[in-house]
Write a structure and sequence with these properties.
By secondary structure, the protein is of the alpha/beta class. The chain is 40% helix and 17% strand. It has one domain: TIM Barrel, CATH 3.20.20.
Length: 329
């Protein structure tokens, strides 16, 4: 038994220290993150635009795990993308995701696991908690388990570098820490996407193996409208970078301010303020591609000039990226 334990420890050490695992870390230099809700299965022109947009991290979002272990895209709830440990989604999406790495700006691809809000039916993180709890007769965390199969498909077939945890209701640190350890075994990083609850997220960080959690995407809109990155850096007491994530105009089908959405100029001003409280900040992001497209569809530059000047999706995408990156030059 001791020999087996030594082998397992060596394998885990290999994944953390190997060049492959290191390459999957956050991009060097300023990191600009685009949340991609609205991109499953997407189309070739949209992915070509994202690939050359200047954004360095693409977040495939949002994905939900059901009670039977099936994984669904929030863009298309009709058919699962993962069923019984196999990829069953659109093949053209797999090709488009792979194309993001072909000569453009994207250096890292993540997949966002989203759970339920308060008072909603059980979802993603309820089931992750239950599957890991051996007292419930769950399948656990071994190679034959439900979760291991899901992560393996995300790594080997979809081709992501990390899973992103957007839990806003369950808050069970034990299961998330063990999920991160599984991700590590497969060669994946794990990132966190909080909007509140510093003590909870600190417990996840403190309990996770070194280098597994390598990014924190702080929601600075809606429920996180009062979130300040500097407060999180100090509260988490960690070297893991905290990237503020902004909601752009066009969100919630309006050109005006909604749920603390911001124009490119407003994002730029807010970032300057955030950097004064966190001088080490090296990136930021925007939620989400579907809202960027809605901004143009609604002709927001004409309807509400205070929202910005973009009249095409590539132009708006470029303005948002510049508002994020300009603060880190």
């Amino acid at each position: 038994m001791k020999k087996y334990l030594v082998v397992i420890q060596l394998i885990s050490l290999f994944f953390v220290c190997s060049p492959l695992f290191a390459q999957q870390g956050r991009p060097a230099g300023p990191n600009t993150i685009l949340f991609g809700r609205g991109t499953y299965p997407g189309d070739d022109s949209s992915y070509a635009m994202i690939r050359t947009s200047g954004f360095t991290t693409m977040m495939l979002s949002s994905f939900y795990i059901k009670a039977n272990g099936d994984v669904y895209s929030g863009d298309d709830g009709g058919q699962p993308i993962i069923h019984e440990g196999r990829y069953t989604g659109r093949q053209d999406w797999i090709r488009r995701v792979a194309s993001l790495r072909q000569g453009g700006s994207v250096r890292r691809i993540e997949i966002l696991l989203e759970g339920r809000w308060y008072n909603q039916p059980p979802n993603t993180f309820d089931f992750i908690r239950d599957w890991i709890d051996s007292s419930k007769g769950a399948s656990g965390t071994g190679p034959g388990s439900t979760l291991y199969g899901i992560l393996r498909v995300m790594k080997e077939t979809i081709g992501v570098d990390a899973i992103c945890i957007d839990d806003e209701s369950v808050y069970d640190s034990t299961s998330i820490i063990r999920l991160g350890k599984m991700a590590q075994e497969i060669g994946l990083h794990m990132s966190l996407c909080p909007f509140t609850g510093i003590p909870y997220w600190k417990s996840v960080l403190d309990g996770s193996p070194a280098a597994v959690v390598d990014a924190i995407y702080l929601q600075c809109y809606d429920g996180g409208k009062n979130a300040v990155p500097g407060d999180w850096v100090r509260g988490l007491a960690s070297t893991v970078p905290v990237y503020p994530i902004f909601l752009c105009r066009g969100a919630f089908s309006t050109c005006g301010v909604s749920h603390n959405s911001k124009s490119p100029e407003e994002i730029k001003a807010q970032l300057r303020e955030f950097k004064s409280g966190d001088p080490g900040m090296r990136g930021a992001g925007v939620w989400q591609m579907a809202d960027i497209e809605d901004y143009i569809r609604q002709r927001c530059a004409d309807v509400d000039p205070a929202s910005g000047t973009a009249t095409s999706v590539p132009q708006y995408l470029g303005q948002l990226r510049e508002s994020l990156a300009g603060s880190f030059r």
